[in-house]
Amino acid sequence: EEAGVQRDRVVPAEEWLQKWAAGKTGFHKERGHPLLQKYLDVLVNGRSGLRIFFPLCGKAVEMKWLADLGHRVVGAEISERALREFFSEQGLPYREEAVPGVPGARLLQSTCGNISLYCCSIYDLSSAIIGKFDGVWDRGALVAVNPCDRQRYASLMISLMEKNSSYLLVTVLYDPNKHKGPPFYVPEGEMRSLFG
Ligand code: SAH
What is any one GO biological process for this UniProt entry (predicted)? Predict the structure, then answer.
């Protein structure tokens, strides 16, 4: 198995928080991702006022893009710092509250209500808490999940999708023997079996 070297790697939450604290966030794209621009029509598919989910959202500027287009955005991220930086860098006022049923989780929501970012592990969320989505932008998310958690992650994502939702997934192609990840190399066959 080509990706066998990465299979047992686990990145503790603490390691992500340290990356944010140290500003080691080379994955962040200040100007947004060109692939979202390119495939926006596929995601939106002629619909308006969609609910769009950003798993492992970081401070992705694309959340602001989609909100500005009239969609409602929900994100999940363990780093509170990332979420605060998102709102301050985008110049958006926000309020903060606890999340009923999820001890320790916080909801940071833009004052106008169209961007709701949950500060907790994605595995603490479910459709009962955050509802279902018409679209998902998965960039730096599946590839950042620990390889041993992929099945759990994919099942959760499937449970969050409305019937006609579209899921844009960005992965990376490289030799997993040369880099320990994240981002992890997810072979195409595995993506197909995860999402069916
Ligand atoms: N999607 C973003 C960030 C990618 S980096 C972008 O495109 O820029 C992956 C992010 O996932 C990091 O910000 C990390 O803090 C967060 N993360 C890692 N494990 C998580 C988990 N279990 N739940 C929620 N967020 C997590």
Answer: methylation
18 is in an annotated binding site: yes
In a domain, 9, yes or no: no
pLDDT of 5 reads 84
Whether 181 has a binding-site annotation, put simply, is no
Say if CB 184 and CB 3 are below 8 A apart. Answer: yes
Residue 4: predicted pLDDT: 75
Strand partners, 136: 53, 167
C-alpha to C-alpha distance for 55 and 137, rounded to whole angstroms:
7
Distance 144 CA to ligand 1 centre (A): 7
Expressed as residue numbers, the domain containing 159 is 37-195
Instruction: Give which of 64, 71, 67 is closest to 91, Cα–Cα.
Output: 64
Those residues of the chain that have pLDDT short of 50 are: none
CA–CA separation, 3 vs 16, rounded Å? 22
pLDDT tens track for 164-182: 999 999 999 999 999 999 9
Q: How far is CA 146 from the centre of its chain?
A: 14
User: Ligand 1 centroid vs 20 CA: distance in angstroms?
Assistant: 10
134 within a domain of the structure (yes/no): yes
